[in-house]
Amino acid sequence: MIGRRRFVATTASGTGLSLTTGAATGSGGAAAAVQGAARDGTFLGLVTAEADGLVPEVLSSYRDELADISARRTARSLRRLAAAWAWQDSAHHRDEALLGPMAEMAEALAAHQHDDGLFDQGNLHSPPDTAFSIADLCLVLGLLGGGDEARAENVRTTLSRIVRAAGPPIAEGGVHTPNHRWKVCAVLAQINALFPDARYPRRIDQWLAEGIDQYPGGQYSERSATYAAVVTGPSLLTVARLCDRPELYGHVRRNLAATLYQIEPNGEVVTVHSRRQDQTRQRSLADYWLLYRALALRDGNGRFAAVARDVERRIAELPAAEDPPGDALARVLDDPELARQLPPSEPPPTHYAHHDTDVRLVRLRRGSRTITLFGGTDFPDVRAISSGLSTNPTFLSFRRGAAILDSVRLAPQFFSLGHFRSEDLQPAGDGWRLHARVRAAYHLPLPPQHRRRDGDYPLTDDGRFWSAMDFPHRPRTYVTLRTEVLVEEAGEGLNVSFEVDESEVPLAIELAFRPGGELGGAGLAAVEGQPDTYQLTSGEGSYRRGDDRITFGPGNGAGPGQPAVVDPGERYTWLNGSLTPPGPRVLITGRAPFRYRLKLR
Questions:
Q1: Rounded Cα gap, residues 63 and 108, in angstroms
Q2: For residues 503 and 592, is the Cβ–Cβ distance under 8 A?
Q3: How far apart are the C-alpha atoms of 204 and 188, rounded to whole Å?
Q4: Which of 527-545 are b and which e, b meaning 16 or more Cβ less than 10 Å from the residue's Cβ?
Q5: What would the pLDDT profile of 70-106 be if each residue is shown by its tens digit?
Q6: 403: part of which helix (H) or strand (E)?
Q7: Using an 8 Å Cβ cutoff, are 587 and 534 in contact?
């Protein structure tokens, strides 16, 4: 790929940076490359139109933003104006009305920067959060051109001062999460291309020496569609391009290949297996747009090219991305190779059974009908609910076109331990088996050698709660609950067989449907005190959206022995937390020992 170093030559002075011989669009270097004969005019037209649409939004809101400044938000707004200013096909090319706002935002960022060069962004004096803002400002420095563009000189001078000040503390500082390492590497590569400093490549090498946190199947350790698409993937591409580290392309390539099997027909990307905050949210294929485009161009990969073209074709109807499509313009001007014509498309997979054993995720797709099975939460190993852990109790989702069953969960009322979370996911005959066995203890008297006459015992955890009982030294007896779920395809639907035994407890199967559809069925009864929640007591129910429909059932009765209650567990209720998903819910209740087959059609 064509790196920034091919287009940027820098001369540093005490007053700032002068970019010459082709900073992105400023002297025609990158602009000329983007405007070359092999450029993709349709792609550039789309990106330009989307970028132009962001300019009025920035101009109308930036002063309000500056009143309560966020470095990341302001740097991104500045980048949006700079991209339109720089790009010759933009309706705002060299528009003098953009210069004043850009200067105001640059000065505000300078005033907001701490003396140590860092910004506050949720976290105090944060190297990684500062890196996100500085990455945008590095792009702006390239976009605003060299000395022949004197009108932007004051903005360049201010931004150069900010970037110079931020470089050393980013290089010296630490991070919080796996993806922060790669973002820091990427921004240090960007800074080093503008203001070379031996500390920056040295720190990049130290972070990269830890190894990229990627499973053999292609998922990164955070298992997050958000961070893979928005942080880790773009960062690794930047480091590969600017630091001549071609081996990093392989990591992005493997992740994109794995993601092919997680794309829903409507452009969402599966998130149930994530270890981050997106594990209960929908994410968009649009976030992966430039990643698929970059690797399609680099490798001549027809499948990746087909995904990139699909995003461009459906950009207006896809779920909202983390960033609007117009933000792509600055990245294209920085890396003109992205503007080349894509290779011929090859159809991506639309009929498959894909088992990702690293994260225990199964994806079945049959055209517009998809099934997701998940048995890989961290809970069986860690026994905690915490940021950075995979804890989503959804083990099944089922889609038929626009009719979407987002979540199937099982919640037994067993010592308030919460939802069934499978310990594994394995093939079983013609289907897939999920299972778990949980237990709760009754604690017996302490052995003589551990007794204290004053009764002052240490505060310890028994796995469910804490108490001054010295739990580790107590003998105990256990009560257990075994759960097994078998999922099998049946025609155009599924049979989901449940076995729950070893204790007698009430339980509820929770079906959570996507908001916007209509529930129907004579056996549906509204659950008092729980909005948009119903119990299926008999017969079949249905969920319809447009022309698409899912039927489910049969109902399994009602009564005081099987209340319509979903117990999320004491780990949530103690904190007044909630695991209730949005949209209409249907509960099918029962009591263990429990044998039941749910039919989804």
A1: 10
A2: yes
A3: 7
A4: beeeeebbbbbbebbbbbb
A5: 999 999 999 999 999 999 999 999 999 999 999 999 9
A6: strand 403-412
A7: yes
